[in-house]
Amino acid sequence: MLKLGGEMFGGGGVGVDPDVVQTVSRQIAAVVRTGVQVAVVIGGGNFFRGAELQQRGMDRSRADYMGMLGTVMNCLALQDFLEREHGIETRVQTAITMGQIAESYIPRRAMRHLDKGRVVIFGGGAGMPYFSTDTTAAQRALEIGCEVVLMAKAVDGVYTADPKIDPNAQMYDNITHREVLERGLNVADATAFSLCMDNNMPIMVFNLLTEGNIARAVRGEKIGTLVSTPGGRPSF
């Protein structure tokens, strides 16, 4: 399961940056051609963030639903690049029904698509307000039987502090889910880490913007930070 942040899709701005989507699609296509089954969850932060809109007075539920619709636009952009430029079959499944452009989220159907070598892209978040797309990635990964959640970020891994603010921040090579939660390391939503901890699902946090990193993460190379629970499922 590959989790992509919406902010990166916008290249730091509002909307979709074709150059970024092209880079991501190229990396995904290279992995798929090796026979690895790939599912993707994409955020919508390049369009809307429910929590931020709430601070400006908007109803949180309505703002979150707007963010969910933003994720679908990102899904369609990735689908277009994968199919048009790389000939990779894809299916978009959404948690909010929109039959003209995507299938509804059906776990067994998603698993069947993966068995056929298609990339399944999940949009619409969890379909409910107050849940992040990080948590959606963890839930979808567990439900369709993924081996690992690859959490692609704009940083190299999990740090002791925000490396953009603290120049002395140190990156972890390995850390447990519980340590991430106890130390308040905000690399992703706490609910996602808690869900993965309870179900022994490893998370690999790495830098998406380094060319080839998705393939390196899939191969289990020593990049980024591996978040796992001792005694859990074997490393991928």
TrEMBL record:
<feature type="binding site">
    <location>
        <begin position="3"/>
        <end position="6"/>
    </location>
    <ligand>
        <name>ATP</name>
    </ligand>
</feature>
<dbReference type="InterPro" id="IPR036393">
    <property type="entry name" value="AceGlu_kinase-like_sf"/>
</dbReference>
<keyword id="KW-0067">ATP-binding</keyword>
<keyword id="KW-0963">Cytoplasm</keyword>
<keyword id="KW-0665">Pyrimidine biosynthesis</keyword>
<comment type="function">
    <text>Catalyzes the reversible phosphorylation of UMP to UDP.</text>
</comment>
<keyword id="KW-0547">Nucleotide-binding</keyword>
<comment type="similarity">
    <text>Belongs to the UMP kinase family.</text>
</comment>
<keyword id="KW-0418">Kinase</keyword>
<feature type="binding site">
    <location>
        <begin position="126"/>
        <end position="133"/>
    </location>
    <ligand>
        <name>UMP</name>
    </ligand>
</feature>
<comment type="subunit">
    <text>Homohexamer.</text>
</comment>
<feature type="binding site">
    <location>
        <position position="162"/>
    </location>
    <ligand>
        <name>ATP</name>
    </ligand>
</feature>
<dbReference type="InterPro" id="IPR001048">
    <property type="entry name" value="Asp/Glu/Uridylate_kinase"/>
</dbReference>
<feature type="domain" description="Aspartate/glutamate/uridylate kinase">
    <location>
        <begin position="2"/>
        <end position="207"/>
    </location>
</feature>
<dbReference type="InterPro" id="IPR015963">
    <property type="entry name" value="Uridylate_kinase_bac"/>
</dbReference>
<feature type="binding site">
    <location>
        <position position="64"/>
    </location>
    <ligand>
        <name>UMP</name>
    </ligand>
</feature>
<comment type="pathway">
    <text>Pyrimidine metabolism; CTP biosynthesis via de novo pathway; UDP from UMP (UMPK route): step 1/1.</text>
</comment>
<keyword id="KW-0808">Transferase</keyword>
<feature type="binding site">
    <location>
        <position position="49"/>
    </location>
    <ligand>
        <name>ATP</name>
    </ligand>
</feature>
<protein>
    <recommendedName>
        <fullName>Uridylate kinase</fullName>
        <ecNumber>2.7.4.22</ecNumber>
    </recommendedName>
</protein>
<feature type="binding site">
    <location>
        <position position="44"/>
    </location>
    <ligand>
        <name>UMP</name>
    </ligand>
</feature>
<feature type="binding site">
    <location>
        <position position="45"/>
    </location>
    <ligand>
        <name>ATP</name>
    </ligand>
</feature>
<dbReference type="Pfam" id="PF00696">
    <property type="entry name" value="AA_kinase"/>
</dbReference>
<dbReference type="InterPro" id="IPR011817">
    <property type="entry name" value="Uridylate_kinase"/>
</dbReference>
<dbReference type="GO" id="GO:0033862">
    <property type="term" value="F:UMP kinase activity"/>
</dbReference>
<feature type="binding site">
    <location>
        <position position="159"/>
    </location>
    <ligand>
        <name>ATP</name>
    </ligand>
</feature>
